[in-house]
Each structure stands twice: as C-alpha cells, then as structure tokens.
Write a structure and sequence with these properties.
By secondary structure, the protein is of the alpha+beta class. The chain has three domains: 23-137, no CATH class; 140-321, Sandwich (Jelly Rolls), CATH 2.60.120; 359-603, no CATH class. The chain contains 14 helices and 22 strands. The strands form four sheets. Strands 7, 9, 10, 12, 17, 18, 19 and 21 form an eight-stranded antiparallel sheet that branches. The protein is elongated. The termini are far apart.
C-alpha cells in the first residue's frame, strides 16, 4: 500500500517536473515545435544531422529589447528542458526586431511524439554560449553563409577562401548573400579536410537567385589529378560537366529548370558509380559515372581561370564529404526555404506564467509594436477625454433640465392678473415699488432658479421690459409698447437663448472627433502593424500562419482600441444631443409664450 501511494505521488508530480523551469536566472522561454504532421505529409523525416533555423521577428517574438547584448543570454534546450543544444546566431538585430538562430537538433528528436526545442533568454549576466564550429558534424567540411563582411567557413575545418572578389549584401535567402556580377569569383584552396572522394561520397549544396537567365555560367568547379566536376547553368537549366576517372568528358543536363527572380536550391550528390542533381529538394536526374578523387582548388561563381562568370546571388553554400540522402536534402530545403512552415512558435512564458498561463488578450497585447502602442496611447487619451465630456455634460444637462421644469411650474402659476399688477407697478415713480410687482419679484428675485436656462432668458426679458416701461411711465398710462419695442425684447431673449444653446453644445465637438477620428486612428495603427509584420516576415523569409497570426492579431488591437473609443462616444453623443434638443425646444416655446403674453398686454 505504501509503495502504491508513493507511485501515485510520483505520477502526480510528473507534470510539474516536466514543466520545471530550467534555470531561475533566465526570465523567459519559448517552445518551438517541428510540425511532424506536415513533414510526414511531405514524406520527410528529421535526419540525424539536421539543423533547425529559428526565425524570430515581431510576428512570433515579443521581447527583443529584453535580450542581452549580441544575444549572449540565448540558450536552446531539448524538449526535456535539461539538455543544452549547440547553436549559433547568424544575425540578431534588436532594433529592427529580427533574429536568425541555427540549432543542431538532437538525434533522438525524430522519435519524439512532439518534436520540439526550448529557447531560453532574459539574463543580462549570462555569457555567450554559441558554438558554431562544434555544432557541425564531421561530415560537413565547409559552410559559407555570407552574413558578415568577410566570407569564412563556420565549421571547425576553417576552409576559408584564398580569393574573394564577390561582395556581400543584404537580401539573401537567409540574411546576407554573395553577389556575383559576371566577373567575380570565390576561390577555396585545397585542404586535406576538403578531399571529395567517390568512395565515401560527397555533396555540394547552395541556394541561388538570378534576375536574367545566364548564358552559360559556372556555379561550382573542382578538379583532381584525373577528373573534374563543374556545376553550371545555361539559360535556366542546370547541368554537370564531368571528366571521369578515365579522362572521358561527359555532360549531364538536369530534368528541370530554375526560374529567374526567385530562390532555388541546387544540390549535387556523388556516390560510388553515380552522380545525382537535386533542384529544390526534388531529384532532377541521376547519372552513372565513375568519378575520380577531387583534390584541387574550388571555384565558386566562375571556372578556374575566371571565365564563364555567374551573375546573381548565392547563399548557404555547404560541402559534405558524405553523400547526403534525398530525405536530408529535402528537409534542409523545407527548413531553409522561402515560406518555410516546418517550425511553429509557442507563446513567450515567464516563471510566473507557468502556473496558470496567460490570456489571449494579454498574449495579443504582448505582441503590439511600439508604433501600435503610440496609437493606442493616443486613443486612450481620447477615451478619457470623451468620457469626461459625457459625464460632465450629462450632469450639466440633467441639472439644467430639472431647474427648467421647476421654473416652468412656478411661471405657470403667474396668470394675467400678475401681469396686470406688473403694468400698474410701472406707473409708480419709485423703482422699488416697480420691483415689488408679483411677476418680477416672485421669479427674478428668487435665487433658486439660477440654474435654469429658461430663467436666464426670462430674466433678460423682464429687464428689457422694465427699461421700456420705465421710460414710458407717466407719459402713457396705458403702457402701450410699439411692435418694434416688442421685437427688440424678443431679440434680446433670442440672443440669450442662442448663448445658452452654445453653452449646452460646448465640448460636444470632442465627442464627434472621438466618433470619427477613433476608428481611423485605430485603422492607421492596424495598417502600420500589418506592414511591420509583413516586413519582418520578408526579412526572415518565414511565411506561415504561426508567424503571421500574432503580428496581425496585435495590429488589430489598434482597431479594437479605436472602436472602443468611438462606440461609447457615439451612444453618449446621441443621448446628450437628444436631451439638448428637448431643452432647446423648451426654451423656444417659453420665449414665444412669454413674448405673446407681453404683446397681448402692451400692444
């Protein structure tokens, strides 16, 4: 029973043990998985000597600014999160937010049900752990990636060129590329590690791109004491020029073409009695031939005398002293090629997020770029201002409406008799007696109506009547005013009415700005975010849903923010506008009613 309980406890702890954090000194990690289902559908398995190319950009990676200088804090572990893997960084640009990291995959990963690796980062005190030279198997004797200013071999063999006239430039398949313009060459001197023997087999692979079909250009050439092999391209068709071990010259043409304006992979594989050529991972011809050992210098981009020069770009040149099988070649093409979808990228995790995970919304916000946060910040200010306007205007409008109703009730109690009393009061010489009239004293002297816009209109009307009635007092006992005088009184009241409406409508324009400007600002943020996402994808060369989706989702956050500003402002504007119309109608009705009553008595 005790053993059973112990086993049960261990089984309970297994999930937490499996997800344990590798080291507390690292602040972030990301799971990167190989899409085994897609590889299986394409008839490809993971070879034992495989490299994974991790392409990080704004679409799948958030914390570029948290990386240490030159990525010295980057670590790559196997799926057990315990075994460190060898890796090196081809390019890291934290400003433009993109990185290219090569990882030597463990041999047992092909047997895993969930083939994946873990990327750890976020430790400013870490030391650089890159191992470019030791990452390569002994079978690979040369690797040129053309990223730095000088062309150099990344393997431990250090088979660096003796002559380089080609230039390095951005725009390669993966970061930089070698640029050939018809007269450039890369010459690699002979070395014991570079011996290419048909007994053990050998492989040469490279990526090329050209804008115009070359007439007859050499891509690779090497000779030996008794034979030679040249990989060339004529028009759009690759072909091999071979001098076999007996000295006979033969020419083998590939069964497929390469189109201009796009990247293509060419691979030549030599084995005992055969020479095969592959285009983009697919066999394009197998030719029986007895090869000799190739021990001389190697030239890239032209032949040994510098003729038949190639015009275009070359990237990822590799030489193996073994014959790579078709599966390994196709895997490399799928991993490195444009639109690669072999890898899927998980969310960035922290030690705190291991327990409960992170919501989709927070995950989306983590991917928002600086440009998007600027737009969202502006929209946040608009949101606060619009709500302040709506709240303050609602308070003012409700208060004014209530005071108007209170005043209207008081005014409705003043009948014709009060107006006649007002008329008799005007005949008195003493102004104080005039102010004691019920109409004037009952309403204009009561401070409880000062919050009413109708009261303020009424007050101005009474003052205007007072002025005119006092001028005519004593000269005309009937207190008759001309139509012009009544029109002047109404004009004064209308002027106050307009001013009251202006006060009620003040700051409403801020709501219209939020309604119309919020969605457009959000759309601007989305367009900029999408543009940055596709730019990063173009640079990294990785096109799949997992690389696009996070960036697009983060870009759409700006549109959501814009609608969040506009929708409440739209509802608030319509509600406040309807309330202002009610108050406006009440003021117009009162002016007409009041002037009509005065005209009835004084014209």
């Amino acid at each position: 029973m005790k053993r059973f309980c112990l086993l049960l406890i261990l089984l309970t702890l297994l999930p937490s043990m499996a997800s344990a954090w590798w080291s507390d000194e690292w602040g972030y990690k990301k799971k990167i998985s190989l899409d085994a289902k897609k590889l299986q559908q394409d008839g490809v398995s993971i070879p034992e000597d495989a490299f994974a190319l991790i392409r990080l950009h704004t679409g799948n990676f958030t914390y570029f600014m948290d990386l240490a200088e030159k990525g010295k804090d980057i670590r790559v572990l196997a799926d057990d999160e315990k075994t460190p893997l060898k890796f090196y960084i081809e390019k890291l640009d934290s400003v433009n937010e993109m990185a290219l990291i090569w990882v030597k995959l463990p041999k047992e990963i092909a047997k895993s049900a969930d083939p994946s690796i873990w990327l750890y980062y976020g430790n400013a005190e870490a030391v650089d752990a890159q191992e470019a030279a030791s990452a390569y198997d002994v079978g690979q004797v040369l690797s040129y990636q053309f990223e730095s200013g000088s062309v150099k071999d990344l393997t431990a063999n250090a088979n660096n060129p003796s002559e380089v006239t080609a230039s390095n430039a951005e725009g390669g398949l993966i970061a930089g590329a070698a640029v050939f313009q018809g007269s450039q060459i890369i010459r690699i001197p002979s070395a014991p590690s570079l011996q290419m023997s048909p007994t053990t087999g050998w492989t040469v692979t490279t990526w090329l791109k050209f804008d115009q079909a070359p007439p007859n250009s050499v891509l690779f050439q090497r000779s030996g004491t008794a034979g030679a092999v040249t990989l060339a391209i004529k028009e759009q068709t690759p072909y091999l020029e071979v001098t076999d071990a007996a000295g006979a010259k033969q020419e083998f043409t590939a069964e497929a073409n390469v189109a201009p304006g796009t990247w293509h992979n060419l691979a030549v594989v030599a084995s005992a009695g055969n020479l095969a050529i592959y285009i983009d991972g697919t066999a394009a011809g197998t030719f029986p031939v007895t090869l000799a050992d190739l021990t001389g210098d190697i030239t890239i981009g032209a032949d040994a005398v510098g003729a038949r020069g190639f015009s275009g770009l070359i990237d990822q040149l590799a030489i193996y002293k073994t014959a790579r099988d078709a599966n390994a070649i196709k895997f490399d093409v799928q991993m490195q090629g444009v639109g690669s979808a072999v890898l899927t990228y998980g969310e960035d995790a922290t030690p705190d997020s291991e327990e409960g995970g992170e919501s989709y919304i927070m995950s989306t916000l983590d991917n928002v770029t600086i440009d998007g946060w600027v737009i969202i910040g502006i929209l946040g200010v608009m949101f606060v201002i619009s709500f302040m306007v709506m709240i303050s205007k609602a308070i003012v409008i409700n208060y004014t409406h209530g005071e108007n109703k209170k005043f209207e009730q008081a005014f409705s109690k003043l009948g014709i008799q009060d107006i006649q009393t007002l008329n008799s009061a005007q005949t008195e010489e003493d102004e104080e007696d005039f102010e004691d009239s019920p109409l004037l004293f009952s309403l204009t002297s009561d401070g409880s109506f000062k919050g009413s816009s109708i009261y303020r209109i009424y007050h101005v009307g009474v003052e205007e009547m007072n002025k005119r009635l006092m001028k005519s007092a004593g000269s005309d006992a009937s207190q008759v005013l001309s139509a012009g005088a009544m029109a002047a009184v109404k004009a004064s009241m209308d002027a106050v009415l307009v001013r009251e409406l202006q006060k009620l409508n003040s700051q409403m324009v801020l709501l219209t700005i939020a309604i119309s400007g919020g969605p457009f600002l959000g759309l601007l943020g989305t367009v900029v975010g999408v543009m940055i996402t596709f730019a990063a994808i173009a640079v990294s060369g990785e096109v799949n849903v997992n690389s696009i989706a996070p960036g697009i989702a983060a870009a759409l956050a700006a549109t959501v923010a814009g609608l969040t500003v506009a929708i409440p402002a739209l509802f608030g504007y319509n509600y406040l506008g309807s309330r202002i119309k009610v108050i406006s109608a009440d003021m117009h009705v009162f002016v007409d009613e009041f002037v009509a009553k005065l005209a009835e008595q004084h014209t």
